[in-house]
Amino acid sequence: MAKVPFKVSARTARLIGRENIASSKGAIIELVKNAYDADSPLCIIYFSSDSLFIIDAGEGMTQNIIANHWMTIGTNNKEDDYFTQSGRIKAGAKGIGRFALDKLGSKCEMITKFNSLVHKDIDDQGKVTNYVAYHWNVDWNDFEGEFKTIDKVEADLIGYKQLDLKQYIIENIHNKKINKIIDTLTFSHGTLIQIDGLREKWEDYFIDQLYSDLEVLIPPKEHSSFQLFLISEQEQDKYGEVFGSVCDDYDYKLVARADKNQKVKIKIYRNEYDITTIPLGFFNRTNLQTYPYRKIDFQRKKWIVCKTFSQLLPGYNKIDKEQVFSKIGKFTFTIYYMKRTYSEPDLKKFYYDKFNAKNRQSWLNKFGGIKLFRDDFRVRPYGEVNDSAFDWLGLGGRKSKNPAPTSHPSGKWKVEPDNVSGAITISRLSNINFEDKSSREGLQENKTFQIFKLLILQIIQVLETDRAKISNELFNFYKELNQDKITDKDIEKITDKVLSNSENEDKEKVFLVKTIQNKDEQIKQFEGEQKILRGMATSGIVTASFTHELGNLSDVLSNRIDELKELIEEQAPPSLFTQVEPFLNPYILLEDMKKQDIKLRNWLKFSLEAAKKDKRTRKKIVLEDYFENYQNAWQNVFLNRMIQFTYQLDDKNLDIRALEIDLDSIFNNLLVNSTDSFMRQKNNPNRAIRIFVKATQKEVIIDYFDNGEGISKDITDHTQIFQALYTTKRNEHTGEEIGTGLGMWLVATIIREYNGEIKLLYPQDGGFGLRIIFIRSYMKDIK
Description:
flat, alpha+beta, seven-stranded mixed beta sheet, 38% helix
């Protein structure tokens, strides 16, 4: 009987690498974990124009480690040896992390210098070599081909007897930021990985997403032995060291610590209420006389309770034949609950502490979700924003089943997944039954993990019960204090009652109720518009307040580069740099800086002109002069965007009485929309904006045209573009709205205030057209 060995096709490497690791971001994180496991104090991720670099100052690799661990699929050395030389618990375990390289690019080379004080370099004959470092490279295309087995695919390995790793990095990666980072370390050993033939185009949008992912890769700590950096050649000043975000603006915080004996110590921190504004009578209520609801407990802002696993999941211990509780092990759990906003009535009713809603929403959008960490590294994709695993605990489902408000007497209020942020920390040492999926994306959904999730939900319920009870007491207290007052809801009930019985009610009473309803709707609309205008006015006030400082800055920008060049020429004339690469030639760099200064100076000039006080005074405006000044102000934009701007007036002496800033708002918004439309067009070499002004005895008519894309075909009712917050501008990657939706609304609002009229025009040659009509007599008489 013949023995037939198994063979593994070379395509297996692709399955493990490119096709098995879920995303490129996940692949990069695998390589960061390798740096951590190598005991490196840092990891640098660098995106150049066409390559990706991963740099660490870890232990490096000998020939033996490269051959028997790095290039051997599924090695279990990290499963057998949990700890690094410094005592870190290793983050990797499956032995497939290096195949993340194939996910990222078609070619890879690595320079690695090992720590000779710890490792001896031994060749395949068992002899100690004289090498101190190695150069390894592989072409992943070699894994292609029919009938090719993996043992037939080889990587190139070259040994070095001498290598200054720090100098090698400086000479091969020309980046000042990276030079500054590595200058703080000796780099006597470490690894540099360069990936070429990148399989994805790393635009700044995706680099920014990666940076956000890295911010939640490691739990935030005051001090850490591992620094993480992301540098991009495209955006030199945008990125740098990656810091986790500590949350200090929350309504509730819960910290739970489970020990090996299945006991959980739970601390609840209350930060939601402004205690100083709550009347003393509230604390005399019957339900607030015991711990932790006494006045002193509110003042301390925290309380503690201890529970066992059995108490959290009552009844399960009796049917736990597999002793799942004992398999879960120690863990810690921190969760923050944060309202995204609040109403004025609720502020009075529940005595909330005020907060900045915009900041909270921004923070939650970035760091929201409950994330799982193991040994200081995040286990993806749990809690991943914009991912199906964001709500892996099913908080949304719980909420939909129990949609009760916070103050409901049932006490069944549940947290919403969008209003929480949290971290669960486990360890490979104490939570041995939590196993990775082979894809490294999440943990095996075994019974232990399922029960663990139920325990987490029960711990969250401790927070929910506390907040629900307090909210119910505050709600009842408020009702008792205000039982004689008629609320908005009471008025709504009266209104509904009158209208539902309108046939039998007095006609005047019905008319009065309907009038009140209409006025309420108008008030709400005006309040919304007022908020928008208040925010926009604030921006204008800030600009106007710093006019003097910005004017001085504009003066500095006009000649600082020329002065700097004169100083440099005295010590280093341009002839010294004729053979130098452009990116190292200071004169070329200074010219680039000068171009940027000119652009900045032009924008400052435009901003300062727009904020002038006399533009906010109603006066006679000669339209010929206005459009000439307008053309001059935007000339830089017209030239850079290759836009031909023309205006034509039937009467050069035509004037109107208006606020100049109102005209600026109208035509600046139209121009911005036209420019955006031009930028979206791929083939339009003849970009043009045309303005025609004419007058009748009663009206001044201004027609505005561009030959851009025109109104989107997706808009069925074109008048929608004049509604506040309506926009069709969307992010090309996510489809999310990115336009403010205020431009055309502002145009329409201003024209209405002048009792004017606005009409959409439809040019025969395509593009966008708008007619603005001002009443001539009105314009002359208004003061």
